[in-house]
């Protein structure tokens, strides 16, 4: 469901009042046939404009370096900040007004929401991260740091590459791992979309042989009025 141009949202997350989320899509007008850092620099204006349309200030957005590992960092400053976490593939927060952003281009972006405690996590989980169990690790970190109950959590998996375009079905593994971690099956959602099938809408690292842009998964809770 798209409410803003270039931003995909998910009904399972839109049901929660005060939760802001979005999967920022490809802008076909931007040339991203280059290396990752150059592509991200070219996409900065597009991403900032999309964040603004979502009501998110760039200076309140934390991002991660993303090294295909299993580290999940907490971002709970006294005041919302713009912060970049090195050697990190997952971010979590219980700070209202603090937003989290993860870049992907075929890898999975998992949104994990605790609507009871108003906490959330955004996780980058491709082949290696899934094998390392980063999404269940994020769930466990939310349990330990925030007191989240896995039975309360809602998980949404964004578009990512899938068979037959990719030989490993890491999306299915993420869903199974979440259920094993205690999230009820009916609270685990997958859009089912393969990023390789629509290059007007998504970036695909595999199809575009590494020279492409990045989709941007963003989430956080608004400050309560």
Jot down its keywords.
CNF1/YfiH-like putative cysteine hydrolases, 5 helices, alpha/beta, 23% helix, 12 strands, single chain, six-stranded mixed β-sheet
Give a brief outline of the structure.
By secondary structure, the chain is of the alpha/beta class.
Radius of gyration: 16 Å
**Largest beta sheet: strand ordering:** 1-2-12-7-3-5
Which series of helices and strands comes N to C?
A: EHEHEEEEEEEHHEHEE
Alpha-beta classification: alpha/beta
Head-to-tail CA distance between termini: 26 Å
Q: Determine the mean pLDDT.
A: 96
Q: Kindly report the CATH topology.
A: CNF1/YfiH-like putative cysteine hydrolases
Q: Briefly, what CATH class?
A: Alpha Beta
Question: Could you describe the largest sheet, including whether it forms a barrel?
Answer: 6 strands, mixed
**Count of discrete domains:** 1
Poorly predicted segments? none
Strand content: 15-25%
CATH superfamily: CNF1/YfiH-like putative cysteine hydrolases
Gross CATH architecture: 4-Layer Sandwich
Structure description:
With about 220 residues, this protein is an alpha/beta fold. It has a single domain, classed as CNF1/YfiH-like putative cysteine hydrolases, CATH 3.60.140.10. It has helices at about 10-15, 35-55, 125-130, 135-145, 170-180, and strands spanning about 5-10, 20-25, 60-65, 70-75, 85, 90-95, 100-105, 110-115, 120-125, 155, 190, 215-220. The protein has a 6-stranded mixed sheet with strand order 1-2-12-7-3-5, with helices on one face. The chain has a 6-stranded mixed sheet with strand order 4-6-9-8-10-11. The protein is globular and about 45 Å long. The mean pLDDT is about 95.
């Amino acid at each position: 469901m798209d409410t803003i141009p270039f931003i995909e949202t998910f009904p399972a997350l839109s049901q929660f009042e005060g939760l802001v989320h979005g999967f920022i899509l490809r802008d076909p007008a931007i040339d991203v046939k280059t290396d990752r850092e150059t592509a991200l620099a070219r996409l900065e204006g597009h991403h900032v404009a999309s964040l603004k349309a979502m009501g998110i200030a760039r200076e309140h957005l934390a991002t991660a370096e993303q090294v295909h590992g299993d580290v999940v960092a907490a971002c709970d400053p006294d005041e919302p900040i713009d912060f970049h976490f090195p050697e990190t593939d997952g971010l979590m927060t219980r700070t209202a007004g603090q937003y989290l952003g993860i870049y992907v281009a075929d890898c999975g972006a998992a949104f994990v929401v605790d609507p009871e405690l108003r906490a959330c996590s955004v996780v980058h989980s491709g082949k290696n991260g899934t094998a390392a169990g980063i999404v269940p690790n994020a769930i466990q970190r939310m349990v330990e740091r925030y007191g989240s109950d896995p039975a309360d959590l809602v998980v949404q998996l964004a578009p990512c590459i899938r068979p037959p375009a990719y030989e490993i079905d890491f999306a299915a593994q993420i869903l199974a791992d979440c259920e094993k971690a205690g999230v009820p099956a009916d609270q685990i959602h997958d859009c089912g979309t393969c990023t390789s099938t629509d290059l007007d809408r998504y970036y695909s690292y595999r199809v575009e042989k590494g020279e492409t842009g990045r989709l941007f998964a963003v989430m956080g809770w608004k400050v309560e009025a």
